């Protein structure tokens, strides 16, 4: 695991905006583009190679990722502080990027280290570009996305399954054409497994009717069936840690090889209002020779089946109307959906009030 040191950008005078934006965000904007002051998965590590500059859009802001001379990933807003040209189409100079437009050089902390056209000008030495704190873990690049320049990153803590050395995992990344909140609604709805995934390799069993309950924990809540366990997608835990994630288990039959139950850790990172970066880690507790047996079986047989299940989710979520979560008639199976929506609505209102208060 590697990290970059926390170095907030210099606070600008005048109105306070959410980091990386050029406008005020209200509660609706925040709900649509992502709750700030959270760690988010950004990209799989292998997608940022040495010497490359990789543009991405996350939480409705354009960023560029690159590795410095030591191989540490840096993440900057994709705007040169001089004339806002995208840094991602500039030149990689090891520990800095040179803008293509006028050659202004910005290092991984967002500091302007050189203005070739006017050496010694006031822009040199200023931390004028937003730079995020980054951690690489679980084959993934994570970043803390602050609300304001005064936000202090929370300690980075991986989900339990990914931090446990006895658990073997495989990462999975996809981009879906749908709001990030639709993914969260989907995983907080275990009952869809008995219908949408009925013909899958692992969710064909169990009853198609059930009763559910919410069980509170000190880090979030479980949404679980009260009359069935270990048969289908029977429960999910929503966890609020340094990052928000879901944890769930799907039972496996004997043909799935050695090891314990099949676990999934899931996260959704907003790209914009209508696109999402979806991250899953498929996990199993296995040791010794069984670990290699399970990993071989996964790569050769099970991975393609898991992609089929994800495609079923994607196919439904991408055709939902953008206001699908506004025109509904919910029932008892949807208690988990209602709970997650209330949590994020409260977050969005609180962060909008924080921004408004900073400008009062």
From TrEMBL:
Keywords: 2Fe-2S, Iron, Iron-sulfur, Metal-binding, Oxidoreductase
PANTHER family (UniProt xref): 3-KETOSTEROID-9-ALPHA-MONOOXYGENASE, OXYGENASE COMPONENT (PTHR21266:SF60), IRON-SULFUR DOMAIN CONTAINING PROTEIN (PTHR21266)
Residue stretches in coiled coil: none
Xref: Gene3D superfamilies: Naphthalene 1,2-dioxygenase Alpha Subunit, Chain A, domain 1 (3.90.380.10), Rieske [2Fe-2S] iron-sulphur domain (2.102.10.10)
Organism: Rhodococcus sovatensis
Sequence ranges assigned to domain Rieske in this UniProt record: 39-143
Membrane-spanning ranges: none
Superkingdom per UniProt: Bacteria
Database matches in InterPro entries: Cholesterol_7-desaturase (IPR050584), Rieske_2Fe-2S (IPR017941), Rieske_2Fe-2S_sf (IPR036922)
Protein's UniProt name: Rieske 2Fe-2S domain-containing protein
